[in-house]
Amino acid sequence: GAVVSQHPSWVICKSGTSVKIECRSLDFQATTMFWYRQFPKQSLMLMATSNEGSKATYEQGVEKDKFLINHASLTLSTLTVTSAHPEDSSFYICSARDIREGLPDTQYFGPGTRLTVL
Amino acid sequence: QKEVEQDPGPLSVPEGAIVSLNCTYSNSAFQYFMWYRQYSRKGPELLMYTYSSGNKEDGRFTAQVDKSSKYISLFIRDSQPSDSATYLCAACSGGYQKVTFGTGTKLQVIP
């Protein structure tokens, strides 16, 4: 099956630093990638939709200048948390949609990145 | 009101029991209904999806959707300890549309 990887899997940083998280589709092309955030015992909340070659679409309440998204190729999207603060500590998960089809079973999730901001 | 509501549990059952997981939704535009399994500190894994109303069976798992009552169910037969995970229901209005998730139900199957 299709595989989506994320790097790093876990990152600890000091408050005020920026952190970049990569999301890669390993064996398929994805024009659309999604970024989610999940707090403990809560659901996945969609942050933004990343489209290859164009600007990301952010959900209401998500600061686009805080969470920078770059989808430069059909297999890579990056999320940069700028000037991270402790309240940004969370589990960040990306998903990628296979370019060939639009059914729900062609959206594949990465393993997630745990961000801890001290 | 959240678009997809799910009892967070936790739900503990003995091995071999039949598990029933349920969600309700409010958006009439939803057409696809999914169940994901998420192990601790891992990304969600799609178990099944159903289009519109009806049942779908895959091995020990059966997904049911009742659009008239906006009710989504997942049944797990002969539950195993390896089924212990958080189960997320989700819905979307179309294959290319964003997915809305429930909060997830944590299931523990006790040997």
Notable traits:
heterodimer, A: 118 residues, mainly beta, seven-stranded mixed sheet, four-stranded antiparallel sheet, 52% strand, B: 111 residues, six-stranded mixed sheet, five-stranded antiparallel sheet, globular
Can you tell me about this structure?
The complex is a heterodimer of chains A (118) and B (111). Chain A starts with a strand and ends with a strand. Chain A has no helices and eleven strands. In chain A, the strands form two sheets. In chain A, strands 2, 4, 5, 6, 9, 10 and 11 form a seven-stranded mixed β-sheet that branches. In chain A, strands 1-3-8-7 form a four-stranded antiparallel β-sheet, with no helix packed on it. Chain A is 0% helix and 52% strand. Chain A has 118 residues and is an all-beta fold. Chain A is globular, with a radius of gyration of 13 Å. In chain B, 0% of the residues lie in helices and 55% in strands. In chain B, a hairpin with a 6-residue loop joins β4 and β5. Chain B is globular. The N and C termini of chain B lie far apart (37 Å). The mean pLDDT of chain B is 92. At the A-B interface, β5, β9 and β10 of A face β4, β5 and β10 of B.
